[in-house]
Amino acid sequence: MTGRSRSVVNRAVLGAVGLTLLITGSWLAATDRHLADRLPSWWPTAGTGTVLLDGDQLARLRGEGWWTPAVMAAAIGLTVLFALCAVARFSRGPTRHLALPSPRCTVRPQALADALTARVAALPGIARSHARVLPRRGRRLELALRVWLEPDTPPDAVLPALRAVTAEAGTAAAPYTARTRVRLSAASHRMPRVR
């Protein structure tokens, strides 16, 4: 599942759950006996001192042939759905290795990102950096580089060095074609606090 479709599914599920809880909460709040006299005549209300599903109604439902299988199927389905969502959300899956031009040589994308982070952080005028290497289809890599400049360092001062490092990373990633995105930010001036 791609990132965009996962985001759409997450939002749809959260919206459906939220809408269900809103409707249920509204119904429960509206059937309170203090609010019952203010409701429209068509609104379903429960009698004073009653419950949503009493013993007689529950016994009648349990006597139906479809009730027990429906409850079990819904419970199992929801359990499996929530378990799959949790596993998909918190597991990254197996680490994909990138094949290098030499026979039987591979590198992990995280190792390449760590090396790129260290190389960029060592450049003059850069306070810190963070790199991500994202493998894409068709022997393509996306290098996402976040760089924080030291205070009073103009971007023009570090761009040639960054260009050289990203070109070096693109050469090192052969046979993959690397596309680099660089995001520059200024490190904040640290002001001493007086207490």
UniProtKB/TrEMBL annotation:
It comes from the Bacteria. Keywords: Membrane, Transmembrane, Transmembrane helix. The chain crosses the membrane at residues 12-30, 66-88. This is Alkaline shock response membrane anchor protein AmaP. It comes from Streptomyces lacrimifluminis. The lineage of its organism: Bacteria, Bacillati, Actinomycetota, Actinomycetes, Kitasatosporales.
